[in-house]
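Input (structure):
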């Protein structure tokens, strides 16, 4: 059982962290080939983490855990740009772009410092 921690790290993950990682990996196994076996880390500098489809699931979880940030602070806008870069680099037509699923162990207070930039009213 993971130890409680205010700032979890790979050796002391809390259940919400593990659930977010596991769900992200499961979805990555069945999505469009351009995104298959890839998970995007949530951090101030998000990066794609590539998983080997031949690897046992538990090893995929351990691999993703080792890359997951132990620090608070997600730049959601940067994460969306990473996804847009992937769409452009793979030259995906609109009907091939998968729906977005965000799995996180945290709440979302804001996506951008300039709230008006994301206003959809």
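Output (sequence):
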């Amino acid at each position: 059982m993971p130890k409680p921690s205010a700032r979890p790290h790979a050796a002391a993950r809390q259940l919400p962290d593990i659930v977010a990682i596991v769900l992200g990996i499961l979805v990555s196994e069945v999505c469009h080939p351009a995104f298959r076996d890839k998970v995007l880390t949530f951090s101030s500098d998000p990066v794609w983490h590539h998983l080997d489809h031949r690897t046992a699931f538990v090893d995929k979880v351990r691999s993703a855990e080792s890359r997951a940030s132990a620090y608070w602070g997600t730049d959601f806008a940067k994460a969306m740009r990473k996804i847009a870069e992937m769409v452009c680099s793979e030259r995906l037509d609109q009907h091939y772009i998968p729906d977005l699923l965000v799995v996180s162990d945290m709440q979302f207070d804001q996506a951008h410092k300039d709230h008006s930039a994301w206003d959809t009213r």
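Notes: The chain has one domain: 15-106. Residues 1-11 have pLDDT under 50 and may be disordered.
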